[in-house]
Write a structure and sequence with these properties.
Structural class: alpha+beta
Helix content: 40-55%
Bound molecules: adenosine-5'-diphosphate, magnesium ion, zinc ion
Oligomer: single chain
Number of domains: 4
Distance between the termini: 71 Å
Number of strands: 17
Radius of gyration: 32 Å
Largest sheet: 10 strands, mixed
Strand content: 15-25%
Number of helices: 16
Shape: elongated
Length: 504
């Protein structure tokens, strides 16, 4: 390819803290009733003072540690000045030259920084905008002649400050990303890490995580990469949109360059309906934010934070889990990913494994596979159906391991296993006891089985002669009839052996 794609991401995530970034209001961006969680501080009344939320700072430090970034000896907040109706103060408290975290690395992409700021409020615009100049001039004539006359409101915006002042972390990458798939993989891994750390739910559809993509096409000049003009795309609300935005921009920019034009440096927005990026503002009217240090918050002395204690909060991270699971359990990549994506399931998996009795490696491997298979199909399916998590099931890892052993030693059929499992997920219980109660224990006692085999042979002369004539299907039919007779509690392999010896 003639052009070299270059992508850098800026990712915002709302942090999960009890209170907002600079006041005691509840941090609850999901609150549907407008302007419930507000106070003079986050509404920017004169004379109020912001106080930085320690938990939010510690959340970002934890992210920095997880991503192997550097934490400076001191940090500070800065004012980023701009006007917009969702920003009560007329500036956003953010961080400019000394973020909480410098550098770091994720999936081979170098990180520039991670800093802390506050979220804005939310605007909702009325759908019906009637802009008839006739009507407007008529209204103002009426308004002048009648002091009680109220202008009819046809177009308006409502503002909700519940989200104003919610702690927001911003992570910026170096322009190291080469294509749409890599960008999506990066964003997904970051989302997973934020969830592992418990610092954000990072749901893109809810706006808890927002991705901005900087995209350019460079060229090779004298063997060196010369970066192209970048376009920044905002308003990307899903992983699919991240992917499609980047693909679209790379194609659009290539067409611009092919036609002999230059790519304009601008901010564009992703339009999910048009499935295209659209120009929002050009570099000419780019913001000058006039950053300056926030005078109302003293600089942060990072020695006042117990970094060693914060570090102890680091859980096993997704990548560490992958590496360990490969080593310890010999699972396939897909199986490992299922577990890494769902930490509760992974914990249940490991707890169940540790309840297995076997010392034999072959047994252990077989039972491990049974555990992962039942977990990722039957159990996951049941939980999804009932809308509960692993916290809500009555099944314990210990009882589940017992069930797996019964299956593994062919004491029960897979049909019985499924029934028992359903029962155990809903009501708990130990499978051995349940089996006795329900009389479902697999019959492998040859005497009992022989009676049934004899009965089936007498009742099915045609299949018997077919089998004797060499038709193997007939044997399966006979085993099936015997299983039916035993209501599924028979042992198919033993039955088959009995028929073979009997019909020799
Ligand atoms: P700005 O000042 O316009 O915000 P920054 O230098 O802060 O630009 O970079 C913002 C993001 O854009 C970063 O993720 C960075 O890696 C990325 N970026 C910078 N230059 C380019 C480029 N030429 N192509 C693609 N991304 C770029
Ligand atoms: Mg920027
Ligand atoms: Zn408040």
């Amino acid at each position: 390819m003639k052009y070299i794609p270059t992508i850098g991401l800026e990712i915002h995530a709302e942090l999960k803290t009890q209170t907002k970034m600079f006041c005691d209001c509840k941090n609850d961006p999901e609150e549907r009733r407008p302007n419930i969680n507000v106070c003079p501080v986050c509404l920017a009344h004169p004379g109020t003072l912001p106080v930085a939320n320690r938990a939010a700072i510690e959340h970002v430090l934890l992210v920095g540690m997880a991503l192997k970034g550097d934490i400076p000896a001191s940090s500070k907040f800065d004012r980023k000045n701009y006007f917009y109706p969702d920003l009560p103060k007329g500036y956003q408290i953010s961080q400019y030259d000394v973020p909480l975290v410098f550098g770091g690395m994720l999936k081979g992409v170098r990180l520039t920084r991670v800093h802390l700021e506050e979220d804005t409020g939310r605007l909702s615009h009325s759908a019906d905008r009637i802009a008839q100049s006739e009507k407007t001039s008529n209204d103002s004539r009426l308004a002048r002649s009648n002091p009680n006359y109220q202008l009819p409101i046809t177009s308006y915006s409502l503002v909700d400050f519940n989200r104003a002042g919610v702690p927001l972390m911003e992570l910026v990458t170096e322009p190291d990303i080469k294509d749409a798939d890599q960008a999506v993989a990066f964003a997904k891994e970051l989302q997973l890490i934020l969830r592992y750390l418990g610092v954000s739910d990072a749901d893109m559809e809810k706006g808890q995580m927002r991705v901005e993509a900087n995209v350019s096409l460079g060229t090779i000049v004298d063997g060196l990469l010369k970066l192209g003009t970048k376009v920044e795309v905002k308003n990307i609300a899903s992983f699919k949109a991240v992917h499609d935005t980047i693909e679209y921009e790379l194609k659009r920019q290539a067409e611009v360059l092919e036609s002999g034009e230059k790519v304009k440096q601008e901010t564009r927005g992703w339009d999910d309906v048009k499935r295209a990026t659209v120009s929002q503002r050009s570099k000419e009217d780019a913001h000058d934010y006039r950053y300056f240090p926030e005078p109302d918050i003293p600089p942060l002395d990072m020695n006042k934070f117990d970094l060693a204690a914060i570090k102890l909060l680091l859980p096993e991270l997704p990548q560490e889990k992958r590496v360990r699971f490969v080593k310890e359990y010999g699972l396939s990549d897909a199986q490992i990913e299922t577990l890494v994506q769902d930490r509760d399931m992974a914990a249940f998996f490991e707890n169940s494994i540790s309840e297995l009795e076997t010392e034999d490696t072959e047994n252990l491997a077989r039972e491990t596979q049974l555990i992962i298979n039942y977990l990722s199909s039957d159990i996951r399916g049941a939980l999804a159906e009932w809308g509960i998590g692993f916290g809500g099931i009555k099944l314990t890892p210990e009882n589940f391991a017992d069930l797996i052993e019964l299956i593994s030693h062919e004491k029960i059929t897979s049909r019985t296993a499924k029934d028992l499992l359903n029962e155990m997920i809903q009501n708990g219980g130990d499978p051995n006891t349940l089996l006795k109660e329900k009389g479902l224990e697999q019959v492998s006692d040859e005497g009992a089985l022989m009676t049934v085999v004899d009965k089936v042979i007498v009742a099915n002369p045609k299949p018997v002669s077919d089998y004797k004539a060499g038709k193997m299907n007939a044997l399966q039919f006979l085993v099936g009839m015997a299983m039916k007779e035993l209501k599924g509690t028979g042992h198919p392999k033993t039955l088959s052996e009995l028929f073979i010896s009997k019909l020799k």
